[in-house]
Predict the 3D structure of the following.
Amino acid sequence: MVASILIAPTEDRRGGTTAPDPVHRPDGRHHMMAGARAMAPWLLGVAPFGLVIGVSAVRADIPTLAGWLTGPLIFGGSAQVATIQLLDSGAAPAVAIVAGLAVNLRLVLYSATMARHWQGTPRWWQALAAALLIDPSLAVGADGYRRAATPRHGHLHYMGGAVALLATWLAAITVGATLGTALPDALQLELVIPLFLVGEIVPRLTDRATRRGVGVAVALGALGTWVPLHLGVLLAIGAGLVAALVPTGTGATADVEVGESDR
């Protein structure tokens, strides 16, 4: 199916069609491999994270298969961590699902970023590409589309990187779930998860709104452990989003003061 994006004829500006790119041409494989190579640096950090998620899934009080299935079904480390931990602590499945959706809410923005590249492609392609869209595939894919000479080459570059990411992610989770029970508890591999998440968040604290939202979410998350039905996580996420999106007025006041002083 992926290859059909490349071989489908496209209309030119005069209403005619251009010759399709054969799948077996070397340039098709070249662009897919280029996407996989561009993903390689990301895999160095993704693989250990997936390994630890697999260990956490097998040690949690949930079926091992259910924990492993968070990989292909959710395909997002932070959302998988939230889902597994909530289910392990006895939260209702609905709460875990909503928490995972809330954590992955950023993917709506990612989809909007990639939508212009996927316009005019078949529905199945859009669904497949969106299912593989996550932070690393966004970065590699956006760079590939920017460099590609044709949209088809950009599609191949994106898919090559995204498939490499998915394969590595599922392999790491599988290895972690397989070895989880054999590893000594003294290793405390679960500590890698918060450290990884901190490393993901800190570089993004580049503006006041983001810092405010993260601060509110962290504070309420720590104070919300008493909330029944494990709803504290959802309240923390919601409050953090509101705090980040709602303007405080401080910036506007500062801008007015600066403008007046310039006069």
Remarks:
- The chain is about 70% helix and 0% strand.
- Residues 58 and 64 are 5 Å apart (CA to CA).
- Residues 4-8+21-189 form one domain.
